[in-house]
Amino acid sequence: GYRCFKAIMFLSGLLFGSIVIFLLCYKERVLETQLSLEASAGIALGIGLLCGLVTMLLRSVGLFTTGLLLGLLLATAALVAAAPVLPPPSPWVPAGSLLGLALLCALLALQWPKALTVLSTAVFGAAVVVVCADYFVEALALVLYVYDRLRLAPAGPLCWHGWVVLGAWPALSLLAVLLQWKLTADGFSHTDVILSRRQKRLQLLRIRQKEAKRRQSLAPAEGTYRRKPPPVQRYAGDVLAP
Q1: Residue 11 in domain
Q2: 10 Å Cβ neighbour count for 63?
Q3: Rounded to two decimals, what is the model's pTM?
Q4: 33 vs 18: which has the higher pLDDT
Q5: Rounded to an integer, what distance in angstroms lies between the CA atom of residue 167 and that of residue 162?
Q6: 20 to 30 A Cα–Cα from 79, which one of 112, 145, 170, 199?
Q7: In this structure, is residue 169 part of a structural domain?
Q8: Does residue 67 form part of some domain?
């Protein structure tokens, strides 16, 4: 959830990079050769790990990627739910809906990091649970149905088991949001932690600047004239100490 902020950022970058690169490598020809499933998966995993490290180290990039995943999931759910009643007339409608809602959620994640991170992790976690349940109940029939709906291919009717599993997605998402908001994410903010670290660094920098100014004020200024002490005069008959 929200407490595992770095892990969520890494997972967002890993999934986003791996899925995009896998689709590009497996569906398209790379260097005039068609890559196998294993080679495409290996390349996608390597680039996904690199993307995960980038999103984990750069907070703004991680939040943007988390918002993108949330927008894609919400747009997919809306398109699948509206397809039996109002089928899209053109392939540009699903593509535009996915892209537009993904960018909107990404920008909102940069504006409200905590709320959108909680919502994104809840929706994504519920989606993973639904996919696992669909695998054991109907051998990924729901996933194939969603895939066919997105690419506007003719899809067979979904049985009541699939609709029950699909209906569990918003219920599980709402439950996950409530659990995070009331228990795990209550009274905890990664933004406050970052601000407190910056304030400590700023205070330390100010202390060092004051110390440097104090040392400069105590040190003698360059070019100042110092009067030499008068030389000791000696007279005849003085006895030097041994």
Answers
A1: no
A2: 26
A3: 0.66
A4: 18
A5: 8
A6: 112
A7: yes
A8: yes
